[in-house]
Design a protein that fits this description.
This protein is 31% helix and 16% strand. The protein is α/β, with parallel strands linked by helices and 615 residues long. Strands 12-14-13-15-16-17-18 form a seven-stranded parallel sheet, with helices on both faces. The chain has a five-stranded mixed sheet with strand order 6-3-11-8-9. A four-stranded antiparallel sheet has the order 5-4-7-10, with no helix packed on it.
């Protein structure tokens, strides 16, 4: 008898993702190759983990190799989606050369159909954001510099760098998260990647247009982050939009260089914030030197008190005869004196000599001030100016007001806006009223200056003894203080450090090196101010961000000549900018007149912002 082979038992069948019925024993495995490049043509970093989800709900992980390829074996045919894991800021902007909006792609990765056997997908991403933190204590000189990869990114992206420095009362913060966006028409369908929006932080602005995934209003925390990083995503997006980027195609998107500095010094200490801005400006010099040595063109945009950091760096470069290193400087609502750019330090009306940056003009080819007299933070509107100064003069003698100033004149944004309606918070925060200067200076020198100097001795009652009012010991203390400051200047000169760090002489940090003579004169000025009960010898100047060059150009032939030759220029925003931070979420008029006409168009003509072309 011949044995016969019985047929194998029937196996249950299953349906593939394409809808074709297949026996369960048939193994389906598609190899998906994803080639990952950024918009500058570079492969994404080798070793980056990529998680792919297939139509069967399976997750297949692979790492990017040296040729930018992640290889995912055994995917079910149908649709796939993928996600970069731990790839900060490299957001997907095109698949197989078809552009897509990166915010939507990050919140809900696009689903791509794959064929049988093997499919290759070309994925294009934005390069990562670039930022520098000048808030923390510098641990090494390299900490204030960009990496070689970041320099190469700037070279490839038009060989230019646009730096942005935020203003006063801005904490460091962090980037936000992407808003979840469910694009599926079938609510019962299973998403290929259910946690896509948690993979990376949102380094791009969300909430621009009304749509399925967001509202028509700008999203703030947590979507667009907070603090300095919130400013970075807003400013970077508006600059790109002004340069010509469309919502349909983000591939030209250019990363600016965000600079964070320690301006959030608490509720009342604007003086300390000014010192911190100058300290940041000193540290910024190293980055500017690095960019110049790398042959990368430099443009700088600052907001509010960030101008003090920028002008400190420029003044130091000017003193060191590094001329026209910076192509364009844009000071947006600068919280510095209107004569800050005169070339004569004797015109400085700030009692500590912090108001004028006499060599700053030499370091830049062009400096543009964007001003608005309707900015209540920087000064009273023109219609209120006279009445404000009359009210200030009336209130100075008030004992109650003097005792409450440190509580009232807060750095809080909302209170700033309230104070703006009464004539401007900027002037009130520093030195028009005696305690406005006395409090911050004495706080700064506590533990630094000898006793009986910046805090005068309290006379005994009734007078008794050989020195009843403490005048002799105060004179001795001032002599000691003066010698300490001179010694600090002497030690700095002997250190051979081109930019030494100053402590007692920190208010003079906008100078590259402080001479012994300047140190002695500074202490003499402090002693003179204490003797006058902290009353300054000159009236304060209005803020440059409020009145622009209007008054100083009439006083200074130097300013007038630079304006005539377009080395200095201005954008008078009085008729369309009504809020100190109105550029962060701009009106149509602010966008068109300030961003497009005031900044980006001349920037493209004269230097460049990424690879955008002049229009």
């Amino acid at each position: 008898m011949t044995d016969t082979l019985s047929p194998p038992p029937l196996q249950p069948s299953r349906t593939s993702a394409t809808g074709v019925s297949m026996p369960a024993h048939c193994s389906v495995g598609v190899t998906v190759l994803i080639v990952h490049r950024d918009t500058l043509g570079r492969y994404l970093p080798e070793g980056t983990l990529v998680r792919l989800g297939d139509a069967a709900g399976k997750s297949i992980s692979a790492t990017i190799d040296a040729e930018g390829v992640s290889r995912h074996e055994g995917a079910a045919p149908g649709k796939v989606a993928w996600q970069l894991m731990d790839a900060h800021g490299q957001h997907l902007v095109a698949v197989d050369d078809e552009p897509l909006e990166p915010c939507r792609a990050a919140a809900a990765p696009p689903e791509v159909d794959i064929a049988m056997d093997e499919t290759t997908i070309q994925a294009t991403y934005l390069p990562p954001p670039i930022s520098l933190n000048l808030r923390d204590e510098m641990t090494s000189p390299e900490a204030d510099l960009l990496s070689e990869a970041q320099l190469e990114q700037l070279r490839l992206a038009g060989n230019n760098a646009t730096l942005f420095l935020h203003g006063y009362n801005v904490p460091l913060g962090q980037y936000g998260t992407f808003a979840a966006w469910d694009k599926r028409s079938d609510i019962n369908a299973q998403p290929l990647l259910t946690t896509a929006h948690t993979a990376s932080s949102a380094t791009l602005l969300q909430g621009i247009n009304a749509g399925e995934h967001t509202s028509a209003e700008y999203r703030e925390e947590p979507d667009n982050g907070n603090g300095a990083y919130n400013w970075f995503v807003h400013m970077e997006y508006q600059l790109n939009r002004a340069a010509g980027m469309t919502e349909e195609d983000w591939r030209p998107y250019t990363r600016m260089v965000g600079i964070a500095w320690f301006g959030d010094t608490g509720s009342v200490d604007f003086f300390q914030a000014e010192l911190n801005a100058m300290a940041a400006g000193r540290r910024l010099v190293a980055l500017l030197e690095q960019l110049v040595e790398a042959g990368i063109a430099i443009n700088i945009i600052s907001h509010s008190l960030g101008a003090r950091a920028v002008l400190t760096a420029l003044n130091i470069l000017g003193e060191q005869e590094h001329h026209q290193w910076i192509d364009n400087v844009y000071l947006w609502q600068p919280a510095v004196a209107d004569n800050a750019l005169v070339n004569d330090a004797s015109q400085d009306s700030h009692p500590l000599g912090m108001g004028v940056f006499p060599d700053a003009h030499q370091a830049a080819s062009k400096i543009v001030v964007l001003q608005s007299q309707q900015d209540g933070i920087l000064g009273p509107p023109p219609s209120q100016a006279d009445s404000f100064w009359r009210q200030a003069a009336e209130y100075v003698p008030s004992v109650w007001l003097g005792s409450k100033l440190n509580d009232i004149f807060s750095a809080d944004d909302r209170l700033d806006a309230l104070l703006g309606t009464f004539g401007g918070a900027y002037n009130k925060k520093w030195w028009i009223i005696p305690i406005g200067l006395e409090g911050p200076v004495t706080r700064y020198y506590d533990g630094k200056a000898p006793t009986d100097t910046v805090r005068p001795p309290i006379p005994r009652q009734p007078p008794a003894g050989p020195d009843p009012y403490g005048r002799e010991r105060a004179a001795q203390s001032w002599a000691v203080f003066r010698e300490q400051a001179i010694q600090e200047a002497r030690d700095a000169l002997a250190s051979a450090d081109p930019l030494p760090t100053y402590d007692l002489l920190a208010p003079l940090a906008h100078h590259a090196v402080v001479s012994e003579e300047r140190a002695a004169a500074y202490i003499d000025t402090l002693q003179w101010l204490v003797g006058r009960n902290w009353r300054a010898g000159k009236a304060p100047r209005a803020a440059l961000g409020s009145i622009g060059f209007g008054a100083v150009s009439a006083e200074s032939l130097f300013i007038e000549n630079l304006l005539r030759n377009k080395i200095f220029d201005f954008v008078d925003q009085t008729s369309w900018l009504f809020d100190h931070s109105g550029m962060k979420i701009p009106s149509t008029e602010v966008f068109e007149k300030s961003y497009q006409e005031g900044i980006v168009r001349p920037l493209l003509r004269e230097s460049g912002f990424g690879d955008y072309k002049p229009t």
